[in-house]
């Protein structure tokens, strides 16, 4: 078992991210495996200065230390281009000249550039060519998932018009590079999984198992995230924060444990079968959320 936590450095660690960190850590460590940390710094315009180092420091203060070097996606662009080229050469991807305004209201790409770019237009992005094949997988929390990428999203971008590499491609390439066998993350990324499975099949990569944890929502139904200024975990006592994440994940730690004995308890009692089979749960953890 090799698991990972892969935050984007767009703000400080918050309760929603902590849930994924704790769940991925315990799922890997209780199986006798390794837990890796990857900083998904793919999108410089969205990054917050110092965020990556603060996330790493917060995880250490919370008692979670990765088993190996931290991988930064910003150091992996050459590897992503190799895989884009492989897909282009195999006819599984193609250049696209479309802009956002060219998309229909549904957001499903209609295949405008599938058979070539019309005259007078220049290629901007690279899209992966989906098929009519139905995607099916069993998620450890959410159960059986069935989707038709052709109907839900259409051919999707793997290399953006601004020159940056899309998340869908980068995460597939890096999960394979790091030998990840189990992806534990928030249910907001459940819709991305079939796109990633399509890319894994096209590139001949072995897919990991998937476990999508419930999202923590604020009282008004918004996801707790850096973008809505959810309380950074650093403002809380580490043992309190970890215990709150465990309770959210359906575990029942004894009250009042200090951080070290709390982790001892969690490592001895983690039970993924107790994680709520929901995509989202309302919480009051974001006391400063506007």
What does this structure look like?
There is one protein chain. With 290 residues, this protein is of the alpha/beta class. It folds into two domains: 2-74 and 177-282, Rossmann fold (3-Layer(aba) Sandwich); 77-168, Alpha-Beta Complex (Glutamyl-tRNA Synthetase, domain 3). The protein is 30% helix and 17% strand. The protein has helices at 15-29, 51-61, 77-89, 149-152, 167-177, 193-203, 238-248, 259-269, and strands at 2-5, 34-39, 71-72, 93-96, 125-128, 135-139, 143-147, 156-159, 182-186, 209-213, 215-217, 280-282. The strands form five sheets. The chain has a three-stranded parallel beta sheet, with helices on one face. Helix 5 (167-177) crosses helix 6 (193-203) and helix 7 runs parallel beside helix 8 (259-269). It is elongated, with a radius of gyration of 20 Å. It starts with a strand and ends in an 8-residue tail after the last strand. Mean pLDDT is 92; it is low at 285-290.
């Amino acid at each position: 078992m090799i698991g990972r936590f892969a935050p984007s450095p767009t703000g400080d660690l918050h309760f929603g991210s902590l849930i994924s960190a704790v769940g991925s850590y315990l799922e890997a460590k209780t199986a006798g495996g390794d837990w890796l940390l990857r900083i998904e710094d793919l999108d410089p315009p969205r990054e917050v200065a110092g965020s990556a180092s603060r996330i790493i420091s917060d995880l250490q203060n919370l008692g979670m230390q990765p088993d190996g070097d931290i991988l930064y996606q910003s150091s992996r662009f050459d590897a992503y281009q190799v895989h884009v080229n492989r897909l282009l050469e195999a006819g599984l991807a193609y250049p696209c000249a479309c802009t956002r305004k060219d998309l229909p209201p549904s957001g499903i790409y209609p295949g405008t550039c599938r058979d070539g770019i019309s005259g007078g237009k220049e290629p901007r992005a690279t899209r992966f060519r989906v098929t009519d094949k139905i995607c099916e997988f069993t998620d450890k929390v959410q159960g059986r998932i069935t989707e038709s990428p052709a109907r839900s999203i259409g051919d999707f971008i793997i290399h953006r018009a601004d020159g940056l590499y899309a998340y869908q491609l980068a995460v597939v390439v890096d999960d394979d590079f790091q030998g990840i066998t189990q992806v534990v993350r928030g249910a907001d990324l459940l819709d991305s999984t079939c796109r990633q499975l399509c890319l894994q099949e096209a590139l001949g990569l072995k897919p990991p198992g998937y476990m999508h944890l419930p999202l923590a929502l604020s009282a008004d139904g918004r996801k707790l995230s850096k973008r809505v200024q959810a309380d950074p975990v650093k403002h809380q006592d580490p043992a309190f924060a970890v215990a709150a994440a465990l309770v959210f994940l359906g575990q029942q730690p004894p009250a009042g444990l200090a951080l070290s004995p709390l982790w001892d308890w969690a490592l001895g009692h983690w039970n993924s079968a107790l994680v709520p089979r929901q995509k989202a749960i309302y919480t009051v953890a974001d006391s400063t959320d506007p």
